[in-house]
Amino acid sequence: MKLIIIGSVAAGTSVAAKARRNNEDAQITIYDRDYDISYSGCGIPYYVGGEVESRDDLTPRDAAFFKKRYNIDVMTRHNVTAVDADAKTVTVENLETGESFTDSYDSLVLATGASSIIPPIPGVDSDNVFPIRNIQNAEATRNFVDATNPKHATIIGAGFIGLEMAEQLKLRGVDVTVIERFPQVMPPLDKDMACRVEDHLEKNGIELMLGETVTELVGDGHVERVVTGSGKTIDTDLVILSVGVRPNTELAKSIGVTIGETGAIAINERMETNVKNVYAAGDVAESFSLVTGKPIWRPLGSTANKMGRALGDLITGGDLEHRGILGTGIFKVFGQAVAQTGLSEREARELGYDIEVLHNTKPDKPAYMGGKDMTIKAIGDRATRQLLGVQIVGFEGVDKRIDVFVTAITFKAKVDDLFHLDLAYAPPFSTTKDPVMYTGMVLANSMDKAARLITPAELQKRIDAGEDMQIIDTRKAAQFEKACVDCAVNIPLGNLREAAKDMDKDKPTVVYCNGGVTGNAAQNVLRNLGFTDVYNLSGGNKNYQLFKKYGN
Q1: Distance of alpha carbon 39 from alpha carbon 57, whole angstroms
Q2: How far apart, in whole angstroms, are the C-alpha atoms of residue 186 and residue 219?
Q3: What are 133-191's pLDDT values in tens digits?
Q4: Please, are residues 319 and 476 in contact by the beta-carbon 8 Å criterion?
Q5: What single string gives the DSSP state of each residue in 246-314?
Q6: Is 427 helix (H, G, I), strand (E, B) or coil?
Q7: I want to staple 227 with a disulfide (CB 3.0 to 4.6 A). Which of 216, 348, 382, 475 is the partner?
Q8: Quick one: pLDDT at residue 36?
């Protein structure tokens, strides 16, 4: 068996390693036009920032390693320029010598990855403009920062890499402006969660310009000013391009491989393309959503490694199929962790789900052990009671909780199941009723209409429409006077039973506190007193004030 793999980062090397473990006799060759293989692209911001000291830490394996350990030929600086699918051959150019040759295959894997999008902006080819994608980009950026000690950097794009770069440059003493064409950072997040990240970034000295585009980079081969679509001008010493990536599908298209609706290569569960004996894996290929079953493209190293291992097994006679993904992601900026999995509220509504939405703010562990609040936004499907998606913003324990939610969604758990999980508890690690358990409990109660929730956006919409409602702030007077919901009256929980005697039991009523717990207690009081239409404000006044500040 002769296996050729085009691409030598996460997916390509995983295919090769698994294929070799299964078949010692296979002839396995990897071609890659780049210099480095199997590198950690996700670690690049930390190399630029100096947290990772050496580029070697991001490139722990080279071609010699793969030859010695796996007897796999990895040919860097070799570009596959053409494929003849009928003859099952590839044409390869040696980029160092300019010579070309032909090689043959029994199975061909397209693991060509994705490339940074370079926006067509005047000045984008200047010497102080850097995309962030591969090790050469990383080294060039770090060398520039080390040599010139820039005072200001402009980052175009507010996704994972853009925000991680903002943090790392700021920690190096560089003032940072982030420009994002969407009206929020982290566009995959819902706005009411992204605003928490925006608030944290601004508190750490990052200037955000949201809903803005860059129209020109001004300077004679060296950018001195950035001009935006609204006419604003920013003096800068360094520009980082982080506007996203696109799959490298050119070679695939040349042989008639079908490109899916996401723009990546369409594959089946065995990662086969529509062209016989040609497979695809990693950032160049689509996956499918474990929630909807629809195609999904999430270019992450974790997904690429998983797809590569499965494909290496399948090609050598195994049955390790690719089961799909949830699009899980996590990153950290100035100590704040941001995680998501499954569908956002926006996506769920666009897909037609009848959803229940919860904002749950709880500490990761007891306050007496230094617990810090995390906000969990969970989306459940009322029809099936299944969990559809979760987003979390917090400072400790976020990774633990998102992974529990990932497992629950993967195995199609109902929101009711979360409360019954036997999660690990001890004061240094968790509260007795873990935030995961509390999320399931509150979502289930709301679906049962026993303790219904209302989001800040839904409440504000009803207020703006002039609906006759009773909105009750159950906190102390000093808290109420500092910040409250529009049209609310202050009735502390201890006074609620008496005050309820003069209230209309049939009028829509919303109660709230700071985060939701006391609001839920007030909701139960009113329900037990015969009030027929009572809501607890999801996430409490803290959530509402963020909504009012940043919009939705």
Answers
A1: 9
A2: 29
A3: 888 999 999 999 999 999 999 999 999 999 999 999 999 999 999 999 999 999 999 99
A4: no
A5: EE--HHHHHTTPPB-TTSSBP--TT-B-SSTTEEE-GGGB-EEBTTT-SEE----HHHHHHHHHHHHHH
A6: coil
A7: 216
A8: 87
- Specify the pairing of strand 225-228 against strand 233-235: antiparallel
Rounded distance, CA 201 to CA 254, Å? Answer: 44
42 is catalytic: yes
Name beta bridge partners: 241. 131, 156
Q: Which residues contact 411 (CB under 8 A, 6 or more apart)?
A: none
10 Å CB burial of residue 187 (0-12, 13-18, 19+) is middle
**Residues 475, 480, 484, 488: is their CA dihedral positive or negative?**
positive
Residue recorded with tokens 């139960």: 524
What residues have CB less than 8 Å from 424, skipping those under 6 apart?
430
Paired with 376 in beta bridges are 360, 392
Give how far Cα 192 sits from Cα of 258, 427, 551, Å: 37, 30, 8
For tokens 């508190």, the residue is 203
C-alpha–C-alpha distance, residues 42 and 447, integer Å: 39
pLDDT confidence of residue 258: 98
Q: Name residues whose C-beta falls within 8 Å of residue 103's C-beta, 6 or more positions apart in sequence.
A: 4, 29, 89, 90, 92
Alpha helices (H) in 415-510, listed in sequence order: 415-418, 435-447, 456-464, 477-482, 493-499
Which residues, 6+ apart, have CB-to-CB distance to 274 below 8 Å? 256, 257, 258, 266
**Residues 418 and 440: beta-carbon distance below 8 Å:** yes
Are the beta carbons of 375 and 539 closer than 8 angstroms? yes
φ/ψ region of 277 (left if φ > 0, alpha if ψ in -120 to 50, else beta) reads left
- List Cβ neighbours of 129 (8 Å cut-off, separation of 6 or more): 123, 217, 223, 239, 241
List 42, 195, 484, 513, catalytic entry: 42
